[in-house]
Design the sequence.
């Protein structure tokens, strides 16, 4: 539905409430016909340059208001989620949470794995994670490899794609013992923390705290920040 001349005239004269102003402004942005009518009316009314400036100014003000409210919303959201994390975990937990990739030694030995797998892992070793992710995703669809799933999960974790990280780290841990592969469980626990799935995280951290392994101390400290 187009905007008739009476409404447009009122709009030009500033004789509209906020809701009507918004509505007409939005419509004018989208509708060429009404924009033409609006411009004709403007000319007809011989509106002074100053008034045009006012209209432009109001439009910009509106733009800034929207931009500002987006920024405020994001800030408040970040602030609240950091409070929630802090209340749940205490201030220290950020010190102990995992931030790094799990190391992988580049393999030069042919025949140790299938060559394709070894080549893909070399991208990981060289830090070429984009190529690694796309090739490993494809590889795992053809042939499941638990180490491939683990390293893929690690990359997704460090990059903040926690739903993908959880998927692959779960594949890398189910049917395996935390005693033999603590690193896989460590990354899964950290993923759960990032996802705020605290119950799942705590259960793994308790396991990791209960025997000698490279993550024991950090797991214990993370657990302590819960209490
Ligand atoms: Zn229209």
Sequence:
């Amino acid at each position: 539905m187009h905007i008739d001349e009476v409404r447009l005239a009122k709009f030009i004269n500033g004789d509209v409430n906020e809701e009507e102003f918004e509505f007409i402004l939005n419509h004018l942005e989208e509708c060429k016909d009404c924009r033409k009518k609006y411009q004709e009316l403007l000319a007809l009314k011989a509106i002074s340059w100053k008034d045009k400036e006012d209209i432009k100014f109001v439009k910009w003000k509106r733009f800034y208001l929207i931009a500002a409210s987006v920024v405020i919303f994001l800030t408040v959201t970040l602030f609240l989620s950091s409070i929630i994390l802090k209340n749940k975990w205490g201030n220290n937990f950020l010190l102990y949470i995992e931030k790094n990739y799990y190391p992988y030694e580049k393999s030069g030995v042919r025949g140790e794995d299938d060559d394709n797998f070894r080549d893909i892992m070399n991208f990981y070793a060289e830090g070429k994670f984009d190529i690694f992710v796309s090739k490993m995703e494809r590889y795992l669809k053809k042939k499941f490899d638990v180490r491939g799933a683990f390293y893929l999960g690690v990359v997704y974790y460090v990059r903040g794609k926690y739903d993908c990280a959880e998927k692959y780290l779960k594949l890398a841990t189910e049917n395996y013992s935390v005693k033999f592969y603590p690193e896989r469980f460590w990354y899964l626990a950290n993923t759960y923390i990032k996802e705020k799935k605290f119950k799942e995280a705590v259960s793994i951290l308790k396991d990791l705290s209960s025997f000698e392994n490279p993550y024991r101390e950090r797991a214990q400290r993370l657990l302590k920040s819960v209490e």
